[in-house]
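Consider what follows.

. . .
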Amino acid sequence: MLHEVNGVALWVDTFGEPSDPPVLLIGLSWPDEFCARLTGRYVVRYDLRDTGRSTYVDPDAPTYDLRDLVADAAGLLDGPAHVVGLGVGGFVAQLLALDHEVASLTLVSTRAVAPGPINADLEDHDATVMGQLFGRAAPDWTDRDSVVDYMTGSARLLAGSEGFDEQDVRTWAGRVFDRSGKSAAAQRASHLGTTFAAIDCGPRWRERLPGITAKTLVIHGDEDPFFPHQNGEVLAAEIPNARLLTLAGIGQGLPRATWPTVVPALLSHTA
């Protein structure tokens, strides 16, 4: 369903009963099966601006900034919710916890600084993997098979030694393609989150992390080449009383192999 918030229409999917504790999932990749496994929770998953079925204008030249995306997320909530941010969605989640009341915070495969130059003490993207990732020929973003093949190759590079499931990746990439606008720009934004590299993400928020009061769980793969594991360690160290859950052999994201560990951890954290 479409929800009108903060002057835009956001497409929202829900799982579970509205009377259960609410869990807001922020990010680009939340499979149906994963959401359904969070039993006893009212799971809210949504398409960010310029992705999926939400308000689409021009993801290559957005007129909004990161704080607008935070306001979008806040507008979906009737009260404090358990907030989970994955990848670039973790930027939104951190600011949501800093500037709004949340029931708890979970940060998955993310870091404390936005796209662009990072602090000297943080480990940047793995140069070898990034060269392989972005050195490939771009797909035909308007062709479903081409996009699915490309995203499958990307997932293989980012997955770590234990995290790659080709059938899952192909299925999910196809679903993202089908629910998104058919222009190249819409597909790039929906699959890659390219808008985050185009929007203004300032001012910095890392220095504010000690001000997060919500109970925080940091989940990070120890073979993540995109946001290396040290970034998760820093988040857990700089957010008061945060707990770090390290996923052995896992790269970026939460592939099916992690669910037997991650789902119980999330259910416990949001109890």
Notes: Strands lie at 2-5, 8-15, 22-26, 42-46, 82-86, 104-108, 216-221, 243-247. Residues 144-158 form the longest helix (15 residues). The two ends are 27 Å apart (CA to CA).
